[in-house]
Amino acid sequence: MKIIQEDKFADIMKDEVEPYLHAHCRECYITGAREAEQREKAGKLHVKFYETDKPQGVIIISHGFTEGAPKYDEMIYYFMKAGYHVCMPEHTGHGLSYRLTEDLSLVHIDTWKRFVRDFMKVCHVAKKEYSDLPLILFAHSMGGAIGTIAASWEPELFQKIILSSPMIRPLTGNVPWPVTVAIAQAECLVGRDAKYVIGQKPYDGSETLETSAAVSEARFIRYHEIRKRRREIQTSAASYGWLLASIRMSWYIRYYGWKRLTAPILLFQAEKDAFVSVRAIQKFAKKLQQKGRTSCEYVYMPESKHEIFGSDDETMQVYVEQILCFLK
Q1: Which end of the chain is more exposed for a tag (fewer CB within 10 A), N or C?
Q2: Total Cβ atoms within 10 A of residue 316
């Protein structure tokens, strides 16, 4: 499959891809999973379903931290052209899905299990609706953690798993991991779980290509401009509750979850990743290859940053071809 070239990216996305996706999309809201630990009613999750002709399967996308559905338009287009329905939910606290805080810049969660249970609720709806088709996971960053745990809780849910720069363990800047853990636990213990993590700030539209997780200027600019126009995808910061949730998801995956995975895995690691631990990804893959219950194909992507799907044309071509080959 020939990917969209950067020099014509904006025009092709506007004139061809967006009309195509709009014509094949239906949006809905799915009630999230009821949390046993919480008394309030479950919230509504925003989900987009994209349907293609003669589908071979259903790809469900588990997006990353602070992201919204429009970031995946290009990948959704490729998946559909390759013969797959696509299910694009927005995680709790993101996009048009329900939130636990009124601050649209802040991603806050009370328990990491809410992320996973809500995502699995959407997966079960997709599985029921397309019961004759295999369900495939495509998961990036934070979504990689959520999707991996979902696959470990219900090993038969996905027939194949694609992990792109998964958050096996988040990077914490210049703060050592044990110190980060201690801070997150302490802040949540004293009731500051819904406060901004120190150093985080509300959305101000100041992100640049250089500070972003993308390499391609054309791909970065498109989403950046969409984000400036739509408040619901201007999430940009983590609460201490989210930080503690990311730590606990990391613990679960590294010590328990990996042992329960059974679906074949394709795992991509970006060379210049500044958001998740490359070492943790490598150790995760090695454990699966040596002691796991499934296969794990590990792909190193040179010159790419955290968002491999935001790379230059050459890298994107390799990336998409690897994925489609794995799916076949």
Answers
A1: C
A2: 24
Closest Cα partner for 109 from 66, 149, 144, 72?
A: 66
Q: Two tokens at 51?
A: 């349907």
Residue 40 has pLDDT above 90, yes or no: no
C-alpha 287 chain-centroid distance: 22
Please state whether the predicted TM-score (pTM) of the whole model is above 0.85.
yes
- Nearest-5° angle of CA 290, CA 294, CA 299? 75
Supply φ then ψ for residue 317, to 5 degrees: -60, -45
Separation of alpha carbons 66 and 234, rounded Å: 8
Burial state string for 242-271 with b = 16 or more CB within 10 A and e = fewer than 16: bbbbbbbbbebbeeebbebbebebbbbbbe
Structural element, H or E, at residue 280: helix 278-291
- Distance between CA atoms of residues 271 and 70, nearest Å: 25
Q: What pLDDT, on a 0 to 100 scale, did the predictor assign at position 34? A: 75
Sign, CA dihedral 277-279-281-287, equals negative
Token pair for 319? 């990336």
Q: 3-state class of 114 per DSSP?
A: helix
> What is d(CA 122, CA 42) in angstroms, rounded to the nearest whole number?
13
Q: Which amino acid is at 214?
A: A
Length of the chain: 328
Structure tokens of 189? 């213990």
pLDDT band at 241 (very low <50, low <70, confident <90, very high): very high
Condensed to tens digits (0 to 9), the pLDDT of residues 303-328 reads 999 999 999 999 999 999 999 999 98
Q: Are 262 and 285 in contact (CB under 8 A)?
A: no
